[in-house]
């Protein structure tokens, strides 16, 4: 999102994380901005029974965990690597300096946060009122059309696992597996080498 060279010019540092490593935890104070150079990161919570709820999954060139930096609150979720990851980290103070001196970047951050709010509203609506097949298809369409802006039938590969889709939508993984097979029979999805395409 923010050009790497620009971040580095404001004293950002690369940090390497192993798979399954916690970057920050729920209720910690936010001190840094994080942007993925390589790897995959999820933000999640656990309920009292230990069930995971995935707030979001983030990939190369995406940032995560910014809202608490702007409103001085603690992190509402954990950030954990799904794979070995290399992440650019810059302090809150240096980030704010960068944004003040580069207003076009500030606008991009605002647009990114607005997209995430839109996504949260959609997911909340889907979880509360729709059938599992509708939830899964709507979630995949959101990723294809709104996040990655990919056009064409079966041109979008879903990088979420069945378990991650279940944890994001508040479903059981068995339900997601059944729904995906059903949607494939209906011609809504294709499964190629266990990967889902829309």
UniProtKB/TrEMBL annotation:
Pfam family, one: cNMP_binding
Domain of life: Bacteria
Keyword annotations from UniProtKB, A to Z: DNA-binding, Transcription, Transcription regulation
Domain HTH crp-type: 130-198
PROSITE patterns: CNMP_BINDING_3, HTH_CRP_2
Chain segments annotated as coiled-coil in the UniProt record: none
Source organism: Tenacibaculum pelagium
Molecular-function annotations in GO: DNA binding; DNA-binding transcription factor activity
InterPro entries: cNMP-bd_dom, cNMP-bd_dom_sf, Env_Response_Regulators, HTH_CRP, RmlC-like_jellyroll, WH_DNA-bd_sf
Protein name: Crp/Fnr family transcriptional regulator
Domain spans labelled Cyclic nucleotide-binding: 15-116
A GO term from the CC aspect: cytosol
The keyword Transcription belongs to this UniProt entry's keyword annotation: yes
